[in-house]
Design brief:
The complex is a heterodimer. By secondary structure, chain A is an all-alpha fold. Chain A has 13 helices and no strands. In chain A, helix 6 packs across helix 7 and helix 12 packs across helix 13. Chain A starts with a helix and ends in a 7-residue tail after the last helix. Chain B is α+β, with helices and mostly antiparallel strands. Chain B contains 16 helices and 20 strands. In chain B, 46% of the residues are buried. The chains are: A mainly alpha, B alpha+beta. Chains A and B meet through helix 2, helix 4, helix 6, helix 8 and helix 9 of A and helix 1, helix 7 and helix 13 of B.
Chain lengths: 304, 571
């Protein structure tokens, strides 16, 4: 418990440093939010700079941002001027969360059995097949796999809509694209873990005690073997929940991934900082959670 | 072996304790997993299925705002135009200005005073009466720097408008437009402006609801229902997804629009846009950048591909502030050495026209200028005259351009490579290619941190000045460092000239000076646009120079026949 509190305590200062870095770095990039192919008249540009306090020293701007943060306000978007960063997050987060959670479920639901089969039936055809499938899913990046799924399932056979957001059917292709890739990674990790565990003498002992194969497998093999997957699952979930740019761009999903990239291109400073903070916060929390699960899985792991 | 066994022993002990302690929890774990799966299923089942629109357009990048005063990009304009109308509106066929909120107007003999008469009984979509006060409020709002309207300068044709914008007009003086009674609106212009009625049809000058704006400030476009003055009202705007519009039953011409519900999709990825179109999820693609460029050659042969000319020019800017490009002979030599036909035939391949001037052919009030054409011997002579025979003694020049993921972005790179070859082989000029991310590109161009820069411009209204004004000494879009009193004087003279033919002649002289003698820019080609829609499915889209296609004229066909209109209360 003390450990958890300490980790949580560290997060505050860490997030502060991250926000400062994001805040400063994006402002260091050449070009500003109001540099456009069509220049706005100088008087108006001055007004815009003043409205968003871009005419103030950066430190002052940062303090202003921190003040807003304390009130839970991440500031206005400089591109979508009728929206605040909070609005954009509120609009994009549910979409990215649904896609991310479903993809996470698919990655684990498919990756774990696949990894287990690949390890347990290592020499049999089923094992080779599972291994090959995992490797294929892992090696084909989403920006290649996505268009292939779209071509077959969307355009050729028209089973599922090719893009957009509007019905459960719209979820299928993005979740498949995103989930399969991570399923490949999960399967590989699971297989490694399983291969490490299977020759362990404690399994022989367990069998010698007369435990059923199922009990041996679930209690004594799977638990230690799944640890690499658990430690990977934290950052993976953070990745999935904040949206994948490739998948959101390909399927035109109104999630956070699109904002993440476009805001950087548009020099929409507050959106960049807000998204970086959200991602960093999620990453820290989920890492902590996966560490706690690891401790629960393996009592030898003790955090002081 | 020993250590392994001991490790096993330790594990077994621990394992024993797991058996006892975690047996029930394991079952709980499975229960939780099943529960979570169930929740996800229920959650996705609850995802509301959107009823389809009557017609779906692929609009391109996400619009920045629904506020017509803030609309800048073509995507913004296509979304705000159906929502907010001005005194005039565009003819669907020719894009010429036709009566909009104003049913008629009088123009004074000197061409400087316009008296507009608003239609009687015009109301906002929310039912409140729409009066001339609203026009006055809307225009003042555009001119007010606090609003941040990117196109505020369009209104500078009005007397005292620029001075008021700059805060140089002593109060209580105001720009010379005002409501004279609830239905009469009067404007006094600085000069006779042949395109003033065109300006009145632009979203920038459209009429916006004062009450909502004063109540909500910048967030006024998010009030629901959103009071609008145009043929369509806002159903919803989902960021990075779509803007859904529904017919405005209180529009003065409510009988006009044929489509009840219209979706404008924010899809910027060409592959995605094209897939949606091919699978029937979208009916119209508005832009050539929204189809995969590698397919364009094949698509052009199809009956659903519609090419049109519009007011857009691709050109090069020269930075005239540093040697050797401060010498007009060097600039002109470079411009003469560009084989424009080769670029349009080998790279762009969309039926573009090689450009000899900056203003596209067909522009209203324009006298065609052919200030430059491919002439390599003349280019070599000029370069030698300037002291660099065969390019000897010339430092390498830096060519600034930007590329985006796909589409037109890649064309910039291909053109850059082609220019390097043309200038290298033709003139012995070395060109260093400087590819930047777009914002960096714009910042570098503004700061004159380049020698030669890729450029393009799309005209806002149908008049040569929408192109020629850019290179006035103090225009923020000049970005060449060129300040020429003669050029400014020619444009000022043209502005004040009431006779259309003489005005066109003066503008042609200015263009000749800009592109010919001074060679501040090297025009490359006049762009072509493409729309994609099946002619047996969609009607009412007509090619025009402004690339404006009023939604109220577009109809859906089924089997080549108009679709029966659904009743407004159908859903």
């Amino acid at each position: 418990m003390r450990y958890v509190l300490r980790r949580l305590g560290f997060m505050g200062p860490l997030l502060l440093v991250i926000s400062l870095l994001a805040f400063a770095l994006i402002r260091l990039a050449p070009g500003g939010p109001f540099d456009r192919e069509r220049q706005v008249p100088p008087e108006i540009e001055r007004q815009l700079q003043a409205r968003y306090h871009l005419d103030e020293p950066v430190l002052r701007q940062y303090l202003r941002f921190l003040g807003g943060l304390l009130r839970g306000d991440l500031g206005p978007s400089m591109r979508y001027r009728s929206h605040s960063v909070n609005d954009l997050l509120a609009a994009g987060l549910p979409v990215s969360l649904s896609i991310g959670l479903l993809a996470f479920g698919l990655a684990l639901g498919l990756g774990l059995p696949l990894g287990v089969v690949a390890a347990v039936r290592q020499a049999a055809p089923a094992g080779h097949l599972a291994n090959a499938a995992a490797l294929a899913a892992l090696c084909i990046p989403t920006f290649v796999a996505g268009p292939l799924w779209v071509m077959w399932l969307g355009v050729k056979w028209q089973w599922f809509p090719v893009a957009l957001w509007g019905s459960p059917a719209h979820l299928v292709l993005p979740v498949l694209t995103l989930g399969l890739y991570f399923a490949g990674r999960v399967a590989r990790l699971m297989r490694e873990g399983m291969l490490d565990t299977l020759p362990s003498p404690h399994l022989i002992t367990a069998r010698a005690k007369g435990l059923s194969e199922a009990a041996v497998f679930w209690r004594h093999a799977f638990r230690p073997a799944v640890r690499p997957v658990v430690s990977y699952a934290g950052p993976m979930l953070a990745d999935l929940l904040t949206g994948s740019f490739v998948v959101e761009n390909l399927f035109q999903l109104p999630g956070l991934g699109l904002f993440m990239v476009h805001s950087a291109f548009n020099r929409d400073y507050p959106v960049v900082v807000g998204l970086v903070l959200l991602y960093a916060g999620l990453l820290l929390v989920l890492n902590l959670v996966s560490d706690l699960i690891l401790a629960w899985l393996d009592p030898r792991v003790r955090y002081e | 072996m020993r250590s392994l066994r001991s490790a096993g022993g330790r594990l077994r002990k621990a394992g024993g304790s797991w058996n006892r302690q975690h047996g029930p929890e394991r079952r709980e774990g499975w229960g939780a997993a099943v529960g979570a799966g169930f929740l996800v299923l229920v959650g996705t089942g609850c995802l509301p299925t959107l009823p389809p629109a009557d017609l779906t357009f692929i609009n391109g990048a996400e619009p920045e705002s629904l506020d017509p005063a803030l609309a800048l990009s073509i995507e913004d304009l296509r979304v705000t135009q159906p929502l907010f109308e001005g005194l005039t509106r565009n003819d669907p066929v020719t894009a010429a200005p036709r009566p909009g909120l104003a049913e008629r107007w009088e123009i004074s003999p000197d061409g400087r005073t316009y008296t507009f008469h608003l239609r009687p009984g015009t109301v906002w979509s929310t039912g409140e009466p729409l009066t001339a006060d609203a026009v006055e409020f809307s225009w003042l709002r555009v001119l007010d720097p606090v609003t941040g309207a990117g196109y505020a300068s369009l209104l500078f044709v009005v007397e005292d408008a620029e001075a008021w914008h700059l805060g140089r007009l002593p109060p209580p003086a105001r720009p010379a437009f005002r409501a004279r009674g609830p239905r009469v609106f009067e404007v006094r212009l600085r000069h006779p402006t042949p395109y003033f009625l065109d300006l009145c049809a632009l979203p920038t000058l459209a009429v916006v609801p004062r009450a909502a704006i004063e109540r909500l400030g910048e967030a006024w476009t998010r009030s629901r229902p959103l009071p609008v003055s145009g043929p369509y009202q806002l159903e919803f705007w989902r960021l990075n997804d779509r803007v859904r519009l529904r017919k405005n039953p209180r529009y003065w011409d409510a009988a006009g629009p044929a489509l009840e519900v219209v979706d404008l999709l924010s899809v910027a990825h060409p592959g995605t846009a094209f897939n949606l179109y091919e699978t029937g999820h979208a009916d119209v693609i508005w832009d050539r950048n929204l189809v995969p460029p590698e397919l364009l050659d094949r698509l052009r042969a199809r009956p659903d591909c519609h090419r049109f000319d519009f007011l857009a020019t691709y050109f090069l800017r020269f930075n005239v502030t540093r040697p050797p490009l401060d010498d007009p002979r060097v600039r002109r030599a470079l411009s003469l050495a560009v084989d424009r036909r080769r670029i349009v035939e080998r790279i762009t391949r969309g039926g573009e026209q090689p450009a000899g001037g900056l203003v596209p052919p067909g522009t209203a009030h324009h006298q065609s200028v052919r200030a430059v054409a491919h002439d390599l011997p003349a280019a070599r002579r000029l370069l030698a005259e300037a002291g660099y025979p065969g390019g000897a003694g010339l430092r390498p020049l830096r060519y600034l351009y930007w590329t985006a993921g796909s589409g037109a972005g890649q064309e910039h790179a291909q053109i850059a490579v082609e220019l390097r070859a043309m200038w290298g082989e033709g003139l012995g000029v070395r060109l260093e290619l400087d590819n930047r991310e777009k914002r960096v590109f714009i910042a570098a161009q503004r700061a004159l941190d380049y020698d030669v820069s890729q450029s393009s411009w799309v005209g806002d209204y149908n008049d040569p000045t929408t192109f020629l004004d850019l290179f006035q000494s103090r225009n923020g879009n000049n970005r060449t460092g060129w300040a020429d009193a003669d050029y400014d004087a020619l444009l000022a003279q043209a502005q004040a000239e009431p006779d259309p033919a003489r005005r066109a002649g003066l503008l042609a002289r200015a263009e000749q000076r800009l592109v010919g003698e001074a060679a501040v820019v090297a025009p490359v080609y006049f762009s072509s646009g493409f729309h994609f829609y099946r002619p047996d499915r969609v009607a009412g889209i007509y090619p025009n120079l402004l690339d404006v296609h009023p939604l109220q004229a577009i109809r859906r066909l089924e089997g080549g026949k108009p679709v029966q209109r659904r009743p407004a209360s159908g859903r």
